[in-house]
Amino acid sequence: MAPLYIFQSESGDHIERFFHMADAPKFGTVVEEGGVAYKRVPVPPQVDVRKLGKGDHGCISHGLPLWDKAAPRHTAHGKPAFESKREIKEYEAKVDRDFFWD
Questions:
Q1: 51: Cβ–Cβ under 8 A, 6 or more apart, which residues?
Q2: Which of left, alpha, beta for 12 (phi over 0: left; psi -120 to 50: alpha)?
Q3: What's the predicted TM-score (pTM) here?
Q4: Which of 33, 55, 75, 88 could staple 79 via S-S, CB 3.0–4.6 A?
Q5: What is the pLDDT of residues 8-27, one digit of tens each?
Q6: pLDDT at position 102, please?
Q7: Where in the chain are the domains?
């Protein structure tokens, strides 16, 4: 599948067009559709910023001790669970262990 490129009209309407990467239009390139001129615009990366729902965890540890008292929460099976990197860093500061990431 070829990459998708976004074009915007002066009124703010958007259209999407597929081009092979070798034929990718430069920013500012104008295409016409239905008598309307659309200019290629950069699109910032889309990031998933959903809130964790009840019972969801951002990170579940499979290597830390079950029911570890320093962990902010646990899964139903006792595995330490964290919702953010901040919580992981706070946990690391509380316990007297050396951590490494693989």
A1: none
A2: left
A3: 0.44
A4: 75
A5: 999 989 999 998 888 889 99
A6: 46
A7: 4-40, 59-94
